[in-house]
Write a structure and sequence with these properties.
about 160 residues; single chain; alpha+beta; 3 helices
């Protein structure tokens, strides 16, 4: 996994260790992310794995900023201290072309040509990763970057 170019943002990528990912993720947020830890199983393994879900508390409707736009929702999921999912929601000014030109191109072009594209969403896939950008309407945009191989094999949580 360490050799492949993983999906992510400029400063953090899927597969990054929590110790590496925490500072750049917190830099996006108004307050440091809060994490809750549970135990999960993966696939057919009988071994217990640590699952941490980290979120941010909104202040005045926002949790931080990404690309100079309001970040209204944030969730990072770590399995065994590796980033496996990043879920973000932006409240944009509505100037998608400028936002894409300034920030999106350098991120999304790394993903290559989209695998699926509709009027409201674009999806990129690799063997184990997936990135999705969805227009939720009224200037809201959702960005999900997921290690689908790991996240699809999670089958239960417990204490």
């Amino acid at each position: 996994d360490d050799e492949i170019d993983r999906y992510g943002l400029e400063t953090v990528k899927l597969g990054d260790k929590k110790s590496t990912a925490t500072a750049p993720l917190n830099a996006l947020l108004n307050q440091p992310m809060q994490c809750q830890s549970t135990v999960t199983g993966l696939g057919n393994s009988r071994k217990a794995f640590t699952l941490e879900e980290c979120t941010a508390t909104p202040l005045n409707g926002t949790v931080g900023k990404l690309w100079d736009e309001k970040l209204t929702a944030f969730k990072a999921t770590f399995v065994e201290n590796q980033l496996c999912r990043l879920e973000l929601q932006l409240q944009t000014s509505g100037d998608y072309a400028a936002l894409y030109d300034q920030y999106g191109k350098k991120i999304l072009n790394l993903f290559g040509k989209p695998d699926d594209s509709t009027a409201t969403s674009v999806r990129w896939q690799r063997d184990s990763d997936e990135a999705t950008v969805k227009n939720l309407g009224n200037g809201n945009v959702a960005i999900n970057i997921t290690n689908k191989q790991v996240m699809q094999s999670l089958h239960h949580t417990g204490k």
